[in-house]
Design brief:
The chain has 499 residues and is an alpha+beta fold. It contains twelve helices and 24 strands. It has three domains: 99-174, no CATH class; 184-321, Immunoglobulin-like (Sandwich); 329-492, Immunoglobulin-like (Sandwich), CATH 2.60.40. A hairpin with a 2-residue loop joins strand 6 (221-238) and strand 7. Helix 4 crosses helix 5 (118-128) and helix 4 runs parallel beside helix 6 (136-151).
């Protein structure tokens, strides 16, 4: 509010200067000292003088071409502005800003709210929440200001605007189109794709990240709607040849107004297929122009009504590299490797008794969970089961994780590791052999290729760690197995070296 007082005072001073300068009342030639009209009087020569005051007028600078009259109305306006500025400043300095806005008309409160004055926004919220109905124009203006603030990414989000939008939603003051626009602007979107692709790669991995940023409010409100992020189109161009891929992925969540301080994000990954007819023409160093479009759908939970946004498009340029060139780099960082290993643990391996059911390719034979309490650098690698004595080893999956700055002491990142049948027809027998003694070693070895599908990872730390003698438990039913997983205690990792 003090800022507004200063602005009003400065405006008053500027208006006062204009008023004192005055408006042009007459044009001609006038004495600069007494403003006498010199029409018809000789004003050149050393002897020329003003007949009114006697001042010499024959030299430059002794006359003027206009005569001004002070603008009394402008001066009065400037005095009013100065008094307002001083008064508003005094109120701000005494801490009675809220009381000041209580006595102001709606338009003054809306004007101050537009400038982000918290006290004005608080008063506006109080009026919108009053039992006495507000005129519709007050709602319309408040909604417009709130939506404009939400759409302007250069402004820091104020949850008071979110509260105004939330109350407008609850009071049915919003159209379906406005609701969709609010839901769209509630998130910040980031499209991630690598700037390079191997010449023999059949697709280009990408990720769409959405971050909840501009719809927190003072109080929480469930809107009764679901927001769906859907793939709309993807494709690309190489030279004069274009292609488009079928798409169909989506992710959704209920749309609400969370309380101030809430942060949330999600990501949807996929790939842009490069047709074989295009790949056959590529050479190292060529560039592909690719695009990806997604669409937002606001779906009412109580019925089947849907409002769809226009597609949001991202475009990127991708460079073709050789088949053997690395996509993800491996870095040597012993400190981070030790920290990751120290914070790693694994839960007992559990599954339904092998051979008791018929397994398909995607059926789960067994599963465990890796836990990490510290990830100062990304990691990427393969996971193996190994018999503790004879050393027989079987590959069971990959893990690729981004770095996670440690923000709190009880933070844990859990990674489920299901073991599937896959293409190995003898997988059941292999698992039975390596786990026959009731314990198994689990080994993690760095492999950067495991992270190539995640464009958020550009480099991974070089490390290897083991989980020794991990208990293996087989159960007669899925229910018993899941219950045991809940109650299991994790086993810490140990460092490994070639020495």
């Amino acid at each position: 509010m003090l800022t507004i007082a200063i602005l009003i005072t400065i405006l008053g001073l500027l208006v006062l200067m204009l008023g004192l300068r005055g408006r042009i009342a007459q044009r001609g030639t006038f004495c600069r000292r007494c403003r006498f009209d010199l029409a018809g009087i000789e004003t050149h020569g050393d002897d020329a003088k003003c007949p009114e005051c006697g001042r010499p007028i024959g030299t430059p600078g002794t006359t003027r071409s206009v005569r001004r009259a002070k603008s009394k109305g402008v001066i009065v306006l400037s005095v009013v502005l100065l008094l307002m500025g001083i008064g508003v400043g005094a109120v701000a300095l005494t801490g009675n800003t809220s009381k000041f806005y209580e006595f102001m008309p709606n338009r003054v409160v809306l004007f101050a709210s537009q400038w982000g004055v918290d006290e004005a926004l608080d008063e506006l919220l109080a009026r919108l929440g009053a039992t006495k109905p507000n005129e519709q124009w007050v709602w319309d203006d408040a909604i417009k200001l709130a939506m404009d603030s939400q759409a302007d990414r250069s402004l820091t989000w104020n949850p008071r605007w979110g509260e105004i939008i939330s109350r407008a939603w609850q009071g049915n003051h919003l159209s379906e189109e406005q609701k969709l626009q609010i839901a769209t602007n509630a998130y910040e979107y980031e499209y991630l794709v690598r700037d390079r692709v191997r010449i023999d790669a059949p697709y280009i991995s990408h990720t769409l990240k959405e971050h909840s940023a501009r719809h927190t409010a003072i109080t929480q409100f469930q809107t009764g709607y679901k927001l769906r992020f859907s793939d709309y189109a993807s494709g690309g161009r190489f030279g004069d040849q274009a292609w488009e891929n079928p798409v169909g992925g989506s992710m959704s969540s209920t749309f609400s107004f969370p309380r101030q301080g809430f942060t949330g994000h999600s990501a949807m990954g996929g790939g842009i297929t490069v047709p074989s007819r295009i790949r056959e023409q590529l050479s190292v160093g060529d560039e592909l122009e690719i695009y990806y479009e997604f669409q937002l759908r606001l779906e009412r939970l109580s019925d089947t009504s849907i409002t769809e946004s226009v597609p949001i498009r991202f475009e990127r340029t991708v460079r073709v590299i050789g088949a053997g060139e690395p996509i993800v780099q491996v870095i040597d960082d012993p400190v981070s490797a030790k920290a990751i290993t120290k914070g790693a643990s694994i839960e007992p391996l559990t599954g339904v008794v092998l051979g008791s059911v018929q397994y398909g390719r995607y059926d789960e034979l067994a599963a465990t969970t890796m836990n990490f309490t510290h990830l100062p650098e990304p990691l990427s690698g393969e996971v193996f089961l190994q018999h503790p004595i004879d050393g027989e080893r079987v590959f069971v999956g990959t893990v690729a994780l981004q770095e996670q700055p440690k923000k709190r002491t009880n933070w844990t990142h859990s990674v489920p590791l299901p073991i599937h049948m896959g293409n190995e027809t003898d997988m059941v027998e292999t698992i039975r052999r390596v786990t026959r003694d009731g314990v198994v070693d689990v080994i993690f070895q760095t492999d950067p290729k495991a992270a190539e599908r995640n464009p958020m990872i550009d480099e991974v730390v070089d490390l290897e760690f083991h989980f020794d003698a991990v208990p293996v438990e087989w159960f007669e039913s899925m229910g018993e197995m899941y219950q045991a997983r809940v109650q299991s205690a994790p086993i810490p990792a140990s460092e490994h070296s070639e020495d």
